[in-house]
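Tutorial handout. Part one gives the primary structure; part two gives the three-dimensional structure as tokens.
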Amino acid sequence: MGAAAVMCTPAFASRVMRSRWYVVFASMVVMAASGSTYIFALYSKELRSTLGYNQQTLNTLSFFKDLGTNVGVVSGLVQQVAPTWAVLLIGAGMNLAGYLMVYLALTERTAAPPVWLMSIYMCVGANALTFSNTGALVSCVKNSPESRGIVIGLLKGFVGLSGAIYTQLYLAIYGDDAKSLVLLIAWLPAAVYIFFVHTIRVLPYRRRAEGDEPNTKPFFCFLYISIALATYLLVMIVVQKQVPTFSHAAYAVGATVLLLILFLPLGVVIKEEYQAVSQLEESLQHPPAIAVEEPKTSSAKDDDHHDETKPSCGFGCFTSMFKPPALGEDFSIMQALVSVEMLVLFVVSVFGIGGTLTAIDNMAQIGQSLGYPAKSINTFVSLISIWNYAGRVGAGYMSEFFLARYRFPRPLALTVVLLLSCVGHLFIAFGVPQSLYAASVIIGFCFGAQWPLLFSIISEVFGLKYYSTLFNFGSAASPIGAYVLNVRIAGRMYDAEAARQHGGVAAVGDKVCKGVQCFKHAFLIITGVTLAGVLVSLVLVWRTRNFYKGDIYARFKVAPATVVDGSNDGREMGGSRDEEEVKKGKNKKQEVNEEEIQ
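Part two.
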């Protein structure tokens, strides 16, 4: 049977859905449905007017949203002991439960909940993002460890586009109804997680022989499609702003085209599998010579010796916590948490991401205070979403390129991004006319760029063995900065200025603050804090300078020759299984197994 005929069989469809590239495609769709936390500004005005909240209360809800979004330690620990499908199912249930209760409160179908209960709803719904992040992102990074910067940038880029995608979908389905938007972000992510629950998983990684290059062509195809999607969304935003009477039917057509572009990467997956089948048939007609070598007994002894020398739990675990391995090796969770490198990343997240989160969450109120119309405020939110995508994808792909070509360290790239974000904060602080468009672009780009850089640095410095837990620890710091900068500083200063403008009466409901002074002093403080983060990040640049001068992916480049073992059928590996197990006897020197030609 020819390769073309094979494409029409159920076996080929099954092969596609079990392939490595289908995992990437499914993860992209899951991540595109996981950015509902970034459109808080679109329905925050409804929370304020319907439930009678003031700005500090809104910022408190925003803090708990950010807390749920970034504190994913639980999801990381679950990923270590449970399969990926369980992680995604938990995320689906939490998303539906949390946001559905917010929707019922907004539509007054339940009694108005107290602020503490609404904060719990927001936190639970937002925490679902960490489960989708952990399930999808960690699986793809472990499946493609030599392209981790590209993988993280691509997947986090779709999260960045998610806000603009949700805006178009809710306008097409429900019209301009912010309350219905909350209903959309309650059921749609849950449905997507459940649909892909059995296709996202960790696959055995086939180390390439020396001289071979990793297959990154599909990643660049995915990149081009994502750029087309971002461009389309940008064009739609501009057209909708220029056309005063954009009909509901036009929104529906636009959303249909959007979904077609979103699912276009499936064609890349099918093409890759078709080529794999063709190569397999050709190799069967002209079988290559396969060299099979017995593993060296010394390496087995070394592995046994390594296992024997691991300290048992107790005092040995405590002492080994302060004796970490070399950078790039697999740190234990405690070794990573007490390291100077993780402490620096924690501080940088508090100062850097906390400031950009404050700007994003208050963008609606910033635009309103500076006198921008409601349509422009929606434009700001969409611009942030698109440039959030550009920052994530750009930082992922470009940092990988400069690292491979020029050994340019990722920590230094993180420093540059933090410095750039200060420009956006100053635009907001001084309220230069029409500068909020530029500020939203800079803030969105810098916020997006920080995530793939942060997650890539953690995977490179601390290894992949406990990556699902460690990268969630790395992102857990940003809510602290968001709480201090957003709630305690920006929220209080806004309410104080609004009360002064209204004769000492607290500004709640429709009573808002007007003028540059509403956010000026808050964002001057945020600029200073971010500059402090820049200085702290230089410590990490200095400590990792020698590590990034070398080849950080050397351990993945040469496949060890081992005895052929047919037991490896490509099934899902658990979270605790890593490349070391594969090394111990489950790879050949050159496998022609159908599962491995991907």
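Part three, for discussion. The CA atoms of residues 139 and 313 lie 29 Å apart. The radius of gyration is 25 Å.
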